[in-house]
Amino acid sequence: MRIGLFIPCYIDAFFPKVGIATLELLERFGHEVVYPLDQTCCGQPMANSGFNADAAGAEALFVQNFSGFDYIVAPSGSCVHHVRDNFDAIEQTDAVTEVRARTYELVEFLHDILKVDAFPWAKFPHRVGLHNSCGTLRQLKHATPSELHEPFFSKPMDLLSKVEGIEFVHPSRPDECCGFGGTFSVFEEVVSSKMGYDKVRDHAQAGAEYIVSADSSCLMHQQGCAERIGVPMKFIHIAEILNGASA
Amino acid sequence: MTTAREKIVDGGAMLHPELRAEHDPDAILRDGRRLDHAEGVSKPLRPPPDLQPEPQPRGARVHGNRPVDQAEAAARFIAAPEHEKMHDERLWDLRQKRDREMHGIPEWEELRSLASAIKEHTLSRLDEYLDQFETNARSNGVHVHWARDGAEHNQIVHAILREHGATSLIKSKSMLTEECGFRPYMASVGVEVIETDLGERIQQLDNEDPSHVVVPAVHKLRTDVAQVFSRTIGTDPGNSDVHYLAEAQREATRPLILKADAGMTGCNFAVAETGSFVVCTNEGNADLSANVPKLHIASIGIEKIIPRLGHLAVFIRLLSRSALGSPITQYTSHFRGPRRGGEMHVVLVDNGRSERLGMEEFWTSLKCIRCGACMNTCPVYRRSGGLSYGATYSGPIGLIIDPTFNARKYSNLPFASSLNGSCSNVCPVKINIHEQIYAWRRVLVERHETPLAKKAAMSVAGALLSRPDAYRAAIAAAETALAHLPRFVIYNGLNAWGKHRETPHPPKQTFHSWYRENRGAKQ
């Protein structure tokens, strides 16, 4: 299986560890993983702000970089949501629809495609609060959102449960948005930050040492909020835990 | 030393920890389950008694047709921490009660699908059902009027009142009459209007719009209400005891209700096959408004139609559970025709609805039954207050309805969302609210209703992200990356990221350069 690795811009710049963990984790399962060097962004920031036409260049480049892979995998739910559900600033040729259909977020790729049943190298003896980003929760359907009357399931919880020593804590508002929301974080920075403060406090009150998530963008925002108000909290991407990060 | 106020705000302590208490000694228990009846059982939320009351933050500053700055008003709401915290906790409590009710109904998701299907069907044949409703209402002895817009609605009502020599009108809460600017119009023609819903009456006395479609004064602390009542009905400004305030209001308003010349209600559902309509309240105030005076006028938005009486059950089961987390409103009043010696008028109002029905991406917003569940669940709304939107409809449903009234004035509203999607999941009629918010952003950009600086920034970002070399150069060094990410989305040149948050810590190298060093041979 030949996998194209998509590392979104902010992970590339600020969280290289997340990119490395994703790459190594996929390689552990014996797959060929390639990171096309000319990649930039999926176009989401522009499209999300309503400037869909301005996303066309980034979208075209994305297709150019990722055509021909069996799967395209990214450690970011919101980017995958954009590619899968909104990526329409460019003409929907066969190449475009092909790339869109083959793009997966890391958790769903491990859970649904690779069907991984063990991470024998991973140990994480810590209390963690799981943060399902809204993109993964309600768009990619990683788990049952609390608003719906549906049987409970959680793909990230399934995967993390296979990690030795991990202990989950549960915040009082399990799937309240943390306030990142892409350009919302700067357009409505006061509300965004307040949501972030409330989020990290809720996890802290539940006793979490770490907040773990499949989206580094939410974590970047929450970390910035926690540091500002002095809530002692550590943040880690799910790929790092599954790849065997010790702390 | 931390003050009591700081403790509330920074310590994460709840104003009312009893809201989370599993065993509430005051609750009435049936079958081991807390029994909730609408608003009544919710715990009163109050600031600590030893503090001076925090002044109420006011809503958006509205200047004619200029775009409303929701973010500015929201920031002022957050700067009033007791109000913000009370508001957030109060509405989250409603959301939790809603969840509990939902879990008591195994067929909940089926009900939502059914309600959505009934509404979509009705909207697709709205003209036929409206005709049917009119015919049946007329044969029940009801006078039926049609109003193209708010102004026409107000004139029709005024004409009916004039014909009866009526100069005072008691009314129950109606978002439609808010849309129509009804109260200011009536004031201008010398008709006294008395709101009979307690929350709406508070808002009327304070000369403020409702901030929520179901709980119109939810943004106010009881100390705010004490201020309003002391100013308007002469209560003791230092006494914010809720029983005292409620009783004083009752004493002041009852005489006005008893001598009113005419009564007005809104409508939750109008049934085509019977020509009757239904009003749901928790205070019984619609019944007072409709039954005390001999003249009853009902304002009905044309989207309120449902085909058959049997369909009503689906909506009644969903409405109050979604709105307040109570199984049903205290009163579900059916109005079929005038009582002996009385007169009943119905005004069917369009006010932009036909136009909305023709909007391919937005017509399903007409399914809305005004339960407010999307507001209660919205993390932005809960922290902003409904008046920050500067529009008749606030919260998620407001973001997609308000621009249909005035795309320029409400051009900022669809951006007041993190697009988290919780609103769509709680909607009892399954409106894809967050997808419509996203769609509105595109429409507003296409219509050039977004700030030029933002447009320029997006154009630069789009170009940069289309060119790998330029992009690489921009984020090659961590310092330059910080200058571009995530700030490349900032259009105003200020550091909107770092004002209330720390910026990310730049690592030694990017993933890109790590990959070239460690896996470079593969390329």
How would you describe this structure to a colleague?
The complex is a heterodimer of chains A (247) and B (523). With 247 residues, chain A is of the alpha/beta class. Chain A has two domains: 2-113, no CATH class; 127-242, 3-Layer(aba) Sandwich (Rossmann fold), CATH 3.40.50. Chain A has 13 helices and eight strands. Chain A has helices at residues 9-14, 16-28, 44-48, 56-66, 77-86, 94-101, 106-113, 134-139, 155-160, 184-187, 189-206, 216-229, 238-242, and strands at 2-5, 32-34, 71-74, 103-105, 127-131, 167-169, 210-213, 234-237. In chain A, helix 11 packs across helix 12. Chain B has a domain at 453-522. Chain B is globular, with a radius of gyration of 26 Å. In chain B, a hairpin with a 4-residue loop joins strand 7 and strand 8. Chain B has helices at residues 4-10, 70-78, 81-103, 108-124, 126-139, 150-163, 175-179, 182-188, 198-205, 222-232, 242-258, 285-291, 309-323, 353-357, 373-377, 379-384, 395-405, 422-426, 433-446, 452-464, 468-475, 478-484, 511-519, and strands spanning 29-30, 33-34, 143-147, 168-171, 192-195, 262-265, 269-271, 276-281, 295-301, 305-306, 331-335, 343-349. In chain B, the strands form three sheets. Chain B has a six-stranded parallel beta sheet with strand order 3-12-9-6-4-5, sandwiched between helices. In chain B, strands 10-7-8-11 form a four-stranded mixed beta sheet. Mean pLDDT of chain B is 89; it is low at 7-22, 35-45 and 487-493. In chain B, 50% of the residues are buried. Chain B is α/β, with parallel strands linked by helices. At the A-B interface, helix 1, helix 2, helix 3, helix 4 and helix 8 of A face helix 2, helix 3, helix 16, helix 18 and helix 19 of B.
